[in-house]
Amino acid sequence: AGEGGGPGPGDGAGPPAPERVLFPPTFSVSEIKNKQRRHFMFLRWKQQQRKEKLALKKKRRKEREALGDKAPPKAVPKTIENQRVYDETTVDPNDEEVAFDEATDEFAPYFNRQTVPKILITTSDRPRGRTVRFCEQLATVIPNSHVFYRRGLALKRIIPQCIARDFTDLIVINEDRKIPNGLVLSHLPDGPTAHFRMSSVRLRKEIKRKGKEPTEHVPEVILNNFTTRLGHSIGRMFAALFPHDPQFIGRQVATFHNQRDYIFFRFHRYIFKSEKKVGIQELGPRFTLKLRSLQKGTFDSKFGEYEWIHKRREMDTSRRKFHL
Predict the structure, then answer these.
(1) Residue 2 pLDDT grade (very low, low, confident, very high; cuts 50, 70, 90)
(2) Compositional bias of type Basic and acidic residues: which residue ranges (predicted)?
């Protein structure tokens, strides 16, 4: 044994374990020059973060189980949604002024079941195969919709023809580099017209575990989180695309879900497995929309009067401020 009473070199204890190296408080992984080493250290740091988070979660769960009924209520996690900046245009469901406006706006005949939606779906000039397939699949989602392809015809000439043939809405799918990237929705005959940026388009064959082809039943429509006056207008535009009498026997649902001003569209079929469990199958297609402008009247890019235009540098000053 050595002088300090510890094991000597002949005791078979082996070399001492290496001490854990701790980085200085001001050290950053980005300071590592070697790319592979930097990536490796970043992954180790993320793994350590996950372990600490999981250990803390397990500790809190054990404390709650030990306290039983005396446990304090769970803290509500802070998210961008529940920390949203207050918008003065948020609609109160009991507001008489809003109820009057909705009873007299352009969509009132639809909600009063005086008109039946009839939709024309068209594209930008000379569409490519992916855009064509997307329009065909969109026509199977929206009942009483018809697909026609533009051949150099301007929208200003298409709209009067649509009105003459009793179409209630016009949908234009724009593309860039063979990929659908925009959607124009115009309510006929007097507007309004909404222009959306489209992204994350997935056709049916690109969706995993998709269900069988949709049937011809009129689907149910779900509109989520359209809370402001602008959001109400956009939600009513989407609702007016579908007949107001869904056929529940078809078990099909079209969902427009607004989250942080991105509108996610999904089309599902559901089945009741028991009294408490419901299974769903996505039928497709799926896509995401971002509102760029809302224009009074029908489409007019030169002399149109705009109700709302998204100005990124002026409006996107806070991540917690939303407009829909």
Answers:
(1) very low
(2) 63-72
Query: What does the pLDDT look like over 159-201, one tens digit per residue?
Result: 999 999 999 999 999 998 889 999 999 999 888 999 999 999 9
Q: Between 96-104 and 229-239, two packed helices, what is the crossing angle to 10 degrees?
A: 40
User: Does the pLDDT at position 276 exceed 70?
Assistant: yes
Under a CB-based contact definition with an 8 Å cutoff, are residues 121 and 141 in contact?
Answer: no
- Burial profile 268-287: b = 16 or more Cβ within 10 angstroms, e = fewer: bbeeeeeeeeeeebbbbbbb
| CA distance readout (Å), 7 to 14, 15, 35, 73 | 10, 11, 42, 53
Q: Please calculate the CA angle 123-153-156 and round it to the nearest 5 degrees.
A: 95
CA distance 228 to 226: 6
pLDDT of residue 14: 57
Strands 119-123 and 145-147: parallel
Tokens standing for residue 303: 């002399």
Q: Domain coordinates of the chain in residue numbers?
A: 29-68, 89-316
Which homologous superfamily does the CATH classification assign to the domain defined by 89-316? Answer: Brix domain (3.40.50.10480)
Whether the CB-CB separation of 173 and 183 falls below 8 Å is answered with yes
Selection from 248, 261, 246, 234 nearest residue 319 by Cα = 261
